[in-house]
Amino acid sequence: MTVTIREVAQKLNISITTVSRALDGYDDVSDETRRLVVDTAQQMGYVPNRAARQLRRQRADTIGYILPTETPRFSNPFFAEFVAGLGDEAAANNYDLLVSTAPPKSAAEQEIYARWVHGRKVDGMVLNRLRQRDWRVQYLAQNVFPLVTLQRSLDPLEYPSVEVDGRRWFRALVEHLYSLGRRRIAYVGAAADLVIQTERFQGYQDGLAALGLALDAALVVEGDLTPEGGYRAAQALLNRPVPPDAVACVDDITAMGVLHAAHEMGCVVGKNLAVTGFDGVIGFEHTHPPLTTVNQPVYQIARQMAQMLLAQIAGRPLEPRQVQIEPVLELNASTLGAQK
Amino acid sequence: MTVTIREVAQKLNISITTVSRALDGYDDVSDETRRLVVDTAQQMGYVPNRAARQLRRQRADTIGYILPTETPRFSNPFFAEFVAGLGDEAAANNYDLLVSTAPPKSAAEQEIYARWVHGRKVDGMVLNRLRQRDWRVQYLAQNVFPLVTLQRSLDPLEYPSVEVDGRRWFRALVEHLYSLGRRRIAYVGAAADLVIQTERFQGYQDGLAALGLALDAALVVEGDLTPEGGYRAAQALLNRPVPPDAVACVDDITAMGVLHAAHEMGCVVGKNLAVTGFDGVIGFEHTHPPLTTVNQPVYQIARQMAQMLLAQIAGRPLEPRQVQIEPVLELNASTLGAQK
DNA sequence: CTTATACTCCAAAACGTTTTGGAAGTCAAT
DNA sequence: ATTGACTTCCAAAACGTTTTGGAGTATAAG
């Protein structure tokens, strides 16, 4: 069915070695032969069999990524953009992207790692949604397997990563809220062992401390990075005897739910309640009111990560092994009110 | 580094044939040997090399999907959920999911198809965002390559698909709007050659016709399936001499932008303007006001598609080659108003 | 004329599986 | 004792590449 290197060679009456080398650009084949080979291969529709190549070369030309599907019905624009970035950068380097899904820390997740890493199905792994202690990082480091992460775990290991300073920027949000006169600033977070949670929560605390505000446990609620989580958290907060005058959310998705609950309970967001998000995920400018958030270039981040991973796989030296990405603070009506 | 079948065989002093057959569950190996082999393999951490297996078996145990990244910064929750569904179903059958990204109809897209299909990198392809005439469908059908699609192109070819009746359900939305007293119902669509556009637009026209409303070209605007597209479209519509009293959008993402523009221009959505979406993408219940839409079980759809594709690859007969999925109409405040 | 130096080419050996086509042994029936 | 039917195993051949280690020709240098 499909045409092999052998058929190309046969047609030209030369060895498969020469065909292979001609196509791969070695310089021990004459220009004339090369042209001939390239043309014939093209015209016969020859495409190297990936399995054979991979078996021989001992690499897959593929990088892997596992979607952290906490819930069965998982859907989050952050990941669509993230995967698109990985895919584009991979494709630009003639690599493929292998994707699977598994709940974090599950047996299923471990099995995929075993299959992919030991079965050499991929040459490197991309990780995000890091945990403070992350078995994936430990596992890969132990197997000396290329990886790159978004944010860093606390594991004392050496590996490349891309980072956004969640602590600093979350603090900036808190300071922004303070500057608008907000004094009872609530926090809606996520699972405690997630790195983004600890960082951003730390930033929240930093902000309060710097501004001389006390940390009020009644104003800190755990969400789950879904709109529903944010919705429930906001309901709880707004029913407090003394409700908050601002809610800082761990991410934009959570903030969506908070906005919803706030409207439902009659708050005028931007006026008697300020709300902030984090991530800069699609459509944050189109919520009502438009959301104040920290906008990360997710697509760029993903490309950067893929690029670092590929460099590592190719054995190229990776100059800065930890890259800082600067997000931008987007101030919108959800905190500023209807003034513009 | 990694342990091969040969090492397992050596350790047990048996042939690699037997190890292979024991692990694959053939019945020409004694129970005792099988137990021994399985245990040792497990304990030595043996994982079959995928490339070798694929080369020998002439299949990849992998299905492919290409994200239709129209814009460089692409992010759409629909696709996160879709990919999660594909990934889960694939994983459940010991298959992997290969993902890439390419602008529809681009040279890059064609190249990926060539690589994957001819290089036998995948055993089948999943397609969505179909066009009325879709080169991908034609190409795959021509190469007798397994595929499954969401919605169908007009190409007169026989291939399995999953469908949601966009025409019927969009009409239902229009009828719903009419029942609430809306008479100037606008439509914000997408590129004309997209199947979802033609179907849903047809449903829009069906609805108007059935209700005795005339099609007013001034109320039909083309968007691009992004919030920005919806935002611009709504601005144009609301600035018309006689603005619409309802806007039916081709999808939820577009509707987000429409909501934004409406608020900005002082409309009270649900009261003097009704808005509807389509898809049931994350957070539609959490927009302000919550969006009336047609909610499709995207995750289920994706799993169903993957399942049909895998059956086809395995050569299992596919009973219904065209599966209808029933979405549900979600009536919310964006049309009903604040009554609840 | 011999020796060195490029320049082109190629046969054969891998890579790690699965599958084919038996071989060897055991047991029961003739 | 031979035959036939099972059961359990295995050697060797694939699968389609890339890479190794030369071999063969010219051309230039000694």
How would you describe this structure to a colleague?
2 copies of one chain form a homodimer. By secondary structure, chain A is of the alpha/beta class. The first copy, chain A, folds into 3 domains: 5-48, lambda repressor-like DNA-binding domains (434 Repressor (Amino-terminal Domain)); 62-164 and 299-327, 3-Layer(aba) Sandwich (Rossmann fold), CATH 3.40.50.2300; 166-295, Response regulator (Rossmann fold, 3-Layer(aba) Sandwich), CATH 3.40.50.2300. Chain A has 13 helices and 12 strands. The first copy, chain A, has a 6-stranded parallel β-sheet, sandwiched between helices. In chain A, strand 3 (124-127), helix 7 and strand 4 form a beta-alpha-beta unit. In chain A, helix 5 packs across helix 12 (298-313). Chain A is elongated, with a radius of gyration of 25 Å. Chains A and B meet through helix 4, helix 5, strand 2, helix 6 and helix 10 of A and helix 4, helix 5, strand 2, helix 6 and helix 10 of B. Strand 2 of chain A pairs antiparallel with strand 2 (96-102) of chain B, so a sheet runs across the interface. Chain A binds a DNA duplex (30 and 30 nucleotides) through helix 2 and helix 4.
